[in-house]
Amino acid sequence: MVSKKYNVQIGEYSGSNLSMRETIYRMVHGLHSKGIHPDVIAEKVSRRIIRRVGAMHQIEDVQFQKKWFCGKDRLLRFEDDVYVVSCDWGKQTTPGTIASLLAAFPNLGIRVTSSNESGE
Questions:
Q1: Phi then psi dihedrals of residue 3, to 5 deg
Q2: Using an 8 Å Cβ cutoff, are 68 and 84 in contact?
Q3: CA angle 53, 4, 48 (to 5 degrees)
């Protein structure tokens, strides 16, 4: 499934014509919202997909790089830890990561299709 745009459905969330980086973020965020620990998600794909950046009370001191979703509304919080998701995705890495996440969590109702396949 090599595409530049994807449609993602996870539970109540449904997004269409999403960029590669937004597709990966939405998949990871959806898994996180279903209670999957960020470390478990990272183990299923690669360590570069998610990075722990500190505890909630330390978050103001963290220096972020451009290659991570780091807006306050994009941080993943699990207990007192804060994680960021990589936004460095391209045609070489996105399809394999999507396939790995779908294979690792087959019973969580995640659906990803190429926008091209759905006629968008």
A1: -145, 160
A2: yes
A3: 25
Residue 79: both structure tokens together? 């207990």
Alpha carbons 72 and 49: distance in angstroms, whole number: 18
Q: If DSSP codes are grouped into helix, strand and coil, which group holds residue 43?
A: helix
CA distance 15 to 20: 12
Alpha helix positions (H), 1-120: 20-33, 38-44, 94-104
CA–CA separation, 2 and 90 (whole Å) = 10
pTM of the predicted structure, to 2 decimals: 0.83
Q: Kindly tell me the burial class for residue 65, based on how many C-beta atoms sit within 10 Å of its own C-beta (0-12, 13-18, 19 or more).
A: exposed
Least confident of 40-44, 85-89, 100-104: 85-89
What pLDDT, in 10s, does the model give residues 45-77? Answer: 865 788 888 776 555 545 556 787 777 778 888
d(CA 97, CA 114): 14
Task: End-to-end CA distance of the chain: give it in Å, rounded.
Answer: 15
